[in-house]
Design goal:
heterodimer, A: mainly alpha, 8 helices, about 90% helix, B: alpha/beta, five-stranded antiparallel beta sheet, 10 helices, elongated
């Protein structure tokens, strides 16, 4: 496992410098916009881009090479999930730390709403983790290029659903129901549902990926 | 002789191509060369042995153990060259070594370092800046640095200059000095296989045409160049394949020694693997 993780890390290391510059740019922009959440959103976008880069590298013979090594197919899939999760967590932790610094400098602690900020960050992380979980099995089955199309679908479909619901139920009514839902246990219910949905989607994604990879030919 | 790899009625079916049913025993302690045209099924066969693709029928065993029953980390004993490390273009040889140290249980860091020195590979140079020969040498260094018993190389010498190829062939000859070591190598460069192989397996359109001891094959087969009329004097059972032109016939014959009794009427030339393959593919088979 460690060897495969290192392999993935070294393969992505080539992008390290450019992503460090991008993140520094976002830190500066967040500071100027006085929006610490902006940094978190953009770092998650970076993690998405890095995920595609990592999956693309595997398409270029990475899986084929791994199959010549003493590692099982199950291990290759397990490592891929772990690596992408670690990468996302690292970027999330970095952006939260960066946001805290920005908040301290801009006086957000005195004027801003910390609970809203926390909820916003967790929502962003949740969305990107879901995208991660949906993309990996598709990339394993049909390669990364097709997974990019799926990404467009992932963004377009929920947006379309929300728009349709607004049209059907009405914006105010939808807001009312959502506010009532978030009020239950001070948002605890939504948090628990979110965690359960995420865990369910991840478990399903992992099992599908294992199945796809066990039948994959190189 | 013990088999390192055994294939029994192995079939792999694709939409437009079928490999098999292959029945083949790759002897332990020998170098077996796998030859055939592009698309003959060489890589497919090697991938089947390595479990990279799934067979549709038959059994494959390695060192007496069925493929399905092999331990999870059985590739610790196998050195493989397949592909050109394109995915790792951003890595360098030192980083490859660090990864392999955590992947192969029998990784020999010092030996890997020695191979890098021997092959004049700069451990810090990025793989994307390597020549094709350098990439192949790095692959070779990896496959030889973890105490492998079996080497499976797919076109490991293709596209390399004669000096590098010769160096690789010498290493393989050195590797095979241990009687428990086995090499299975596919190549289009039949002269390379002629230099080092003990056995030759020839695949054509997914079927195994022959598997023979190389020395016996080269001793047994010969080429007769004669007229159509003279050709009829050669016993039919000894004619393997014939190529006809306007002015003469060329026949690949077996049992050269036996045919030698007819000497005087024909000249029986020595042949080589390439010529035998060309006869079998392009000639009229008898």
């Amino acid at each position: 496992m460690k060897g495969l993780l290192l392999k993935d890390y070294y393969c992505l290391k080539q992008y390290l410098r450019q992503y460090v510059f991008i993140l520094i740019f976002f830190v500066a922009l967040s500071f100027l916009l006085k929006s610490p959440t902006y940094l978190i959103v953009m770092s998650m976008v970076c993690s998405m881009s890095l995920m595609f880069a990592s999956l693309q590298t595997e398409d270029m013979g990475g899986y084929l090479y791994s199959m010549t090594l003493p590692v099982s197919r199950k291990m290759i899939v397990k490592e891929k999930y772990l690596f992408l999760l670690l990468m996302m967590l690292f970027l999330f932790a970095f952006s939260v730390a960066g946001s805290l610094v920005i908040m301290a400098c801009t006086g957000f602690f005195e004027t801003g709403n910390m609970i809203e900020w926390m909820a916003g960050n967790l929502s962003v992380a949740w969305i990107y983790l879901i995208i991660n979980a949906l993309i990996i099995p598709v990339a394993l089955k049909w390669r990364t290029e097709k997974a990019r199309f799926l990404l467009m679908g992932i963004i377009a479909v929920p947006a379309a659903i929300v728009l349709i619901m607004v049209q059907i139920v009405g914006g105010e009514s939808l807001n009312f129901w959502l506010e009532r839902l978030f009020a239950v246990g001070n948002g605890l219910l939504v948090l628990i549902i979110g965690i359960l949905v995420l865990a369910g989607i991840y478990a399903g994604s992992y099992l599908i990926s294992q199945r796809v990879f066990s039948g994959k030919e190189f | 002789m013990d088999s390192a790899i055994s294939l029994r009625n192995v079939v792999k079916q694709y939409d437009t191509f079928q490999l098999g049913g292959l029945n083949l025993d790759i002897p332990r302690g020998c170098i077996t060369g796998l030859v055939g045209e592009n698309g003959a099924g060489k890589t497919t066969m090697l991938k089947l042995i390595l479990g990279m693709i799934h067979k549709d029928q038959g059994n494959i065993s390695l060192y007496g153990t069925m493929q399905e029953e092999l331990p999870e980390k059985w590739r610790n004993d196998v050195g493989v060259i397949m592909g050109e490390l394109d995915f790792a273009s951003a890595m360098n040889a030192r980083q490859i070594g660090v990864c392999m140290e955590h992947i192969f249980s029998g990784w020999k860091k010092k030996e890997f370092g020695n191979y890098l020195k021997q092959f004049k590979i700069d451990p810090e140079k990025k793989i994307k800046d390597y020549s094709k020969g350098m990439k192949m040498k790095l692959n070779l260094a990896v496959s030889l640095s973890h105490d492998a018993k079996l080497l499976i190389f797919d076109e490991a010498t293709s596209g390399l200059d004669p000096v590098v190829r010769d160096e690789i062939l010498d290493i393989l000859l050195d590797f095979i000095q241990d009687e428990n070591h086995t090499v299975l190598i596919s190549s289009h460069i039949t002269s390379d296989l002629e230099k080092i192989s003990d056995y030759i397996a020839f695949l054509h359109e997914g079927k195994l045409v022959f598997f023979m001891n190389k020395d016996e094959m080269l001793y047994d087969y010969g080429v007769v160049r004669c007229s159509q009329e003279e050709l009829s004097k050669i016993p039919r059972e000894q004619i393997v394949a014939v190529k006809k032109s306007r002015f003469q016939c060329e026949a690949l014959v077996s049992g050269r020694e036996k045919l030698g009794k007819l000497a005087g009427e024909f000249v029986i030339d020595q042949t080589n693997i390439e010529e035998i393959i060309l006869f079998l593919v392009k000639g009229e088979r008898r």
